Amino acid sequence: MYIKKLKNLSLFALLAISVAACQKKDDDNKTVTPPPTGSATGEVGFEVSNYFGDKALTLNTETYTTASGESVTISKFNYFITNIKLKKADGTEYVQPESYYPVKADVAGSHHFHIKDVPAGTYTSISFLVGVDSARNVSGAQSGGLDVNNAASGMFWSWNTGYIMAQLEGTSPQSTATDKKFVHHIGGFKGEFNSIRSVTITLPQQMVLSADKESTIKLKADANKWFGTNIKVANVTNLMTVNATSKMIADNYATMFSVTSVVNE
């Protein structure tokens, strides 16, 4: 009886080993799916083009006519695009961290920038600030797009007054300066004459961002809108302070942006 039981146990052990070996062989032939590493993301590129009305902006040589009939030649046209948000068709938003881009008409490299790690999906609008938010105006020395010794050079007044949100310079026969130049530097981040402006633009077509792909938003800035119908060089030749006039110009430059097209890869 004892020998019979021992044989049965041995047979059971061999059977178990055989089954286990078969299972291991089957498992070795299976495709192992790695665990997900996060949401699928793509990249959004921005291409910024400066215009004056329906003409591409050319510095120093081309003469343009404002809505008030004044003649102007532009030598400098700079502004900050910051705090970019991308809104999906379902109403959710992606907010880019550390979103600070000084765009300078005479620096071609500043006309192109990219936002990485944007969640894939369908987007219908963008929003951003023209200028630098109040928190960063009082945060001391900055880096990246807010580095006043590099990217943001020439776009800063002092640690008390803060960043120049946008600036336009040039010449005009209507200027009251002896050299016929005009200078408009717009700043101020608090109080009655705050010059930070929020811009929201509905995309002319949906941006369909796919995983590991790049979509491009082509943005236009129209310097003619700076003047609107209420700013004349004859009346505002040199403006480098915060007041009611700088507030009017800030209201004007909030309208100068549009999206001309969206390119989906």
Measured between the Cα atoms of the first and last residue, the distance is: 78 Å
- Return the string of H and E elements: HEEEEEEEEHEEEEEHEHE
Structure summary, number of beta strands: 15
Based on CA atoms alone, the radius of gyration comes out at 30 Å
How is the main sheet built?
Answer: 10 strands, mixed
The general outline is globular
Range of strand content = 35-45%
Q: What is the mean pLDDT?
A: 89
Low-confidence stretches: 1-38
Structurally, the number of domains stands at: 2
Structural class: alpha+beta
Number of helical elements? 4
Write up this protein.
The protein has 265 residues and is of the alpha+beta class. The chain folds into 2 domains: 1-31; 43-264. 17% of the residues lie in helices and 43% in strands. The protein has 4 helices and 15 strands. The protein has helices at residues 2-28, 134-137, 224-227, 244-253; strands spanning 41-52, 55-56, 63-65, 71-88, 93-95, 100-104, 112-119, 121-130, 156-158, 162-171, 181-187, 197-209, 214-222, 238-239, 257-264. The strands form 2 sheets. Strands 3, 4, 5, 6, 8, 9, 10, 11, 12 and 14 form a 10-stranded mixed β-sheet that branches. Strands 1, 2, 7, 13 and 15 form a 5-stranded mixed β-sheet that branches. The longest helix is centred in the N-terminal third of the chain and has 27 residues, at 2-28. The radius of gyration is 30 Å and the shape is globular.
